[in-house]
Design brief:
- By secondary structure, the protein is α/β, with parallel strands linked by helices.
- The protein contains 11 helices and 5 strands; from the N terminus they run E-H-E-H-E-H-E-H-E-H-H-H-H-H-H-H.
- The protein has a 5-stranded parallel beta sheet, with helices on both faces.
- Helix 4 links the parallel strand 4 and strand 5.
- It is globular.
- The N and C termini lie far apart (about 35 Å).
- This is Response regulator.
- It comes from Hamadaea flava.
- InterPro entries: CheY-like_superfamily, NreC/VraR/RcsB-like_REC, Sig_transdc_resp-reg_C-effctor, Sig_transdc_resp-reg_receiver, Tscrpt_reg_LuxR_C, WalR-like.
């Protein structure tokens, strides 16, 4: 059962998402929050698998909530998905840097919304390649971090290759096909890279790949 927390200051938005989610046999809405402070308290209380968090809320915005969840080892199993009104929301990349697993536009089709919740629950990033490129093109303009090479030294060549493919939006099965290895081995490479780079999830791998220059907008 996928346990979901809904956080949005608009009751109509929350009720609409709740209706969709509770119609599914494998999803349960465990709590609702109307502001950031309440969201953080309820996440700590319920430890949901997924926290659907509006990017703009009173008290504490979704980015700060995301950062606090990501920084708390006790909440390592909580995947934050940012809810936004606009696909080009300027806060999206900041939220990903803070630790969000991805983002969803509120006018998403119901079937896509449900699929995305399940994807996030598996620990996969909600970042299509086209969205990744757009965000990187727009927000990552600075040169690679000065510690980039030292950071990447921890990775084997195969792990580097897997991170590059994650950054291009490929799933584990697609990575396996591209690298001519089994899906289990592909998942192992990705998980080891996440551990070595201290990445919370695949979305964080995407951020690290671009910040270190392992992948650039021109090669994505």
């Amino acid at each position: 059962m996928i346990r979901v927390l809904l956080a949005d200051d608009q009751p109509l938005i929350r009720s609409g998402f709740r209706a969709l989610l509770e119609a599914e046999e494998d999803i349960e809405v465990v709590a609702e929050a109307a502001n950031g402070i309440e969201t953080l308290a309820l996440v700590r209380q319920w430890l949901p698998d997924i926290a659907l968090v509006d990017v703009q809320m009173p008290g504490m915005d979704g980015i700060e909530v995301t950062g606090r969840i990501a920084a708390d080892p006790a909440l390592a199993g909580v995947h934050v998905v940012i809810l936004t009104n606009y696909g080009r929301d300027e806060y999206v990349f900041t939220a990903l840097r803070a630790g969000a697993a991805g983002f969803l536009v509120k006018d998403i089709e119901p079937e896509d919304f449900l699929h995305s919740v399940r994807v996030a629950a598996r620990g996969d990033a909600l970042l299509a390649p086209s969205i990744t490129r757009r965000l990187i093109d727009r927000y990552v303009t600075e040169p690679p971090r000065q510690d980039a090479e030292a950071t990447l030294t921890w990775l084997t060549n195969r792990e580097r290759e897997a991170v590059v493919l994650v950054a291009k939006g490929l799933s584990n099965d697609e990575i396996a096909a591209r690298m001519a290895i089994s899906p289990v081995t592909a998942k192992t490479h990705v998980n080891r890279a996440m551990t070595k780079l201290h990445a919370r999830d695949r979305a964080q791998l995407v951020i690290i790949a671009y910040e270190t220059g392992l992948v650039t907008p021109r090669t994505a």
